[in-house]
Amino acid sequence: MQWYQLDKEKLEQKLHVTTERGLSSKQVEKRQKQHGANELDPGKQTAKWLIFIKQFQDFMVLVLLAATLIAGLLGEYIDAIAIMVIVFVNGFIGFFQEQKAEKSLAKLKELSAPFAYVLRDKNWERKPSRDIVVGDVIKVSSGDRIPADMRIVDSNSMETEESTLTGESLPVAKHTNSLNKQDLGPQDQSNMAFMGTLVTRGSGTGIVVGTGMNTVMGQIASLMVKTKKTITPLEHKLAELGKILIIVALILTALVVVVGVYQGHPVYNMFLAGVSLAVAAIPEGLPAIVTVALSLGVQRMIRKNAIVRKLSAVETLGSASVICSDKTGTMTENQMTVKEVYLNDTRLDVTGDGYDLLGDFYSNNNRVDNQFPNLKSMLLYGMICNHASILVKKGKNFINGDPTDGALLVAARKLGLNQSDSEPYRIIKEIPFDSTRKRMSMIVEDENKRQFLITKGAPDVLLPRSAFIMSTNEKRLMKTADKEKINNEINKMGDKALRTIAIAIKPITGKQNDGLLEDDLTFVGLYGMIDPPRKEVRAAIEDCKEAGIKTVMITGDHEKTARAIATDLNILPEDGLVMDGYQLNQMSSNELKEIIDRVYVFARVTPEHKLKIVDAFQQNGHIVAMTGDGVNDAPAIKASNIGISMGRSGTDVAKEASSLILMDDNFATIKAAINEGRNIYENIRKFIRYLLASNVGEILVMLFAVLLGLPLPLVPVQILWVNLVTDGLPAMALGLDQPEADVMNRKPRPPKEGIFARGLGFKIVSRGLLIGLVTLIGFMMTYQGNPENLVYAQTIAFTTLVMAQLIHVFDCRSERSVFSRNPFGNKYLVLAVLSSIAMLLCVIYFAPLQPIFHTVFLGIRDWIFILALSAIPTVFFGFTKR
Ligand code: ADP
Ligand code: MG
Question: What keywords appear on the UniProt entry (predicted)?
């Protein structure tokens, strides 16, 4: 017997579960142990020791190790061992950095992992999909990805899209009846839903019959090859840059070696020095540090409620020039409260705030009760044609389900209606709400077996479909005058920023033509509900404006409502345009492109319009961030440069299409993420600048010395030590730097801009040159042509180089002069520099280390000399401001 052949009772028996209470926690525990997690095989992880070994794979490091080995064999034990130790320490650092990056990426994955709505011990709970076991009872609805293979036991117009399995992209309707056939393929098992497929419409309940690799998807996955790790454009750019830098470094080192040998240095000495220099100068660690900086930035974003799904988004964020954001729920609280109702030509005001159930209905300041004509039935219809429920947690009311629906429940409660009033009505059929239809309908049957339809939705959608109207005591034909009055009222509500919903009914008699089901309605009334803007949003929009980013509001709501809220939030400038879905439909993409830069609000749009909007902005050269939460939003989210989905209200489909998830659904979080994105990019520039300027300094001092026929100012261990100490912690600390005060006052970064743009290349070369020069001067003035001074002069050169770099690191914090911000504002950097100085002092003053690092004691006067020299590069450019 196959699962699809069983009926619900057999199924329940077989899996020891009922759809009323679900599995017990004991059963779940046992089954989890037995079958493992509901995951497709995660594949093998790279062993830790392999990652460690990988740190030494680098060609130049291997050459260095070989050269050291030779040195050791030649009797230079101390040098050989010192170099080995440094190389290993370096390897360890690389290893830990990689581990850290990996860990934070894993955490990220966990945060954006899918959840399922499952019944256990009679309670509906949201559980990570990986915890699902066979026998679990699961509810899914439009937009969900099916978490495991399941047999459908309840279907509410449920349709799924199974192209991942069958290649067929047309949705398949799902029903609950058992199929009495043999050997059906997945595409014909219409009472089953399969892991990984999508619910495109309606909702349903199923009992899990297969998890993990034991699913149809699992069988396919076992045949598939693993996808490679993706790298971000910046990492790619840097890898390319790294290749060039390697070649430049190698050429320069080769030059140092050749000139040195020509000047009479021993070949072997020059070789070891050259290899050390190459190892130090080649920024092989750059991509790793970039990854670390990205992932640290990503962690900071998590703390600000933004989950990055694709690392590349971090970079793109800094270039965003337009944010297209949903209004409802993202800019507003998504806390709807009915403030007005309109029925039989009368407007009633409704008191009470939020989801508080206390409140009354007033007509011209006179309280009315449930005797007011039609009021009770209107509110009752709103309760029946509804999916939400009111939950009370810790004395506070919450809405489970759509807040728009919730508001109608709250309004009904205010008149004294409650659940027992809607219970006698049995739901026969439902056509779910979606943002394209902008309405939902239910056919219900009352106690007298009379059936009727309740439709609720956008008033301008329902009004043309209404042929009758409920007036005080009768149902009568709708006249043009009625429509005008209602339209007038809709506009008035819109101007007050109220979201409007109409409710209409229709008796069902005899056989219905499905296509005409929602026609010839009887209009009952209007609701006007407020959804207050989120507090933080106004400031965030202002900040975006400062940052050269345009905010565009997108909503399915009425134009008036959208305009009122946009004006309130300061989105809409005086000459700004509001466009609605009907206008959008009329326009060709070229016409839209011409005008879109002046549009700030799109009202009464459907998710399908979003794609057109993204496209038009992109054609005008914009980098577009687009938010969305539903299934139909996914294409636009994908097409935008930064797709953003909602952590709370978002569907799986939208989340999967997005590169950023807002955990709190909040517009302000987008701004915070952009801020962070810009910061991360600037920090990456900061440490690239620091590392490369340091390397330029190291190479130049060696090159100048050999060109001038001097002895080598630095010995190999010193070079490697400099590389380890100054490149390690201080560079990392720059990656954690706070943004400059004005990052959000700059224009968005042009996406094509190179890493060295905005004067970075000049900064690197000029600082590097000066660092090399002052080191050389320190060496020459101490050496004075006397070989007896050599070790002393090398100690001075070494110390000057280190100090010059450690001072210069503060210069790197700003695009402008080092004096433009408090140099000690980054406490990590101060700590890193202090610890580097401590290590430097050890190497100079700890006697046993002196022979290893070829150093001698330095006195106060030496230090004054060194500090004066090493401050020059930073101070000089601090004043020239270049
Ligand atoms: P938004 O982009 O603001 O979320 P929607 O597409 O969700 O807009 O809604 C568009 C219109 O559809 C609303 O203005 C309202 O009139 C109507 N509407 C919204 N939610 C519901 C619902 N649950 N039931 C019926 N109609 C609804
Ligand atoms: Mg909505």
Answer: ATP-binding, Cell membrane, Ion transport, Magnesium, Membrane, Nucleotide-binding, Phosphoprotein, Translocase, Transmembrane, Transmembrane helix, Transport
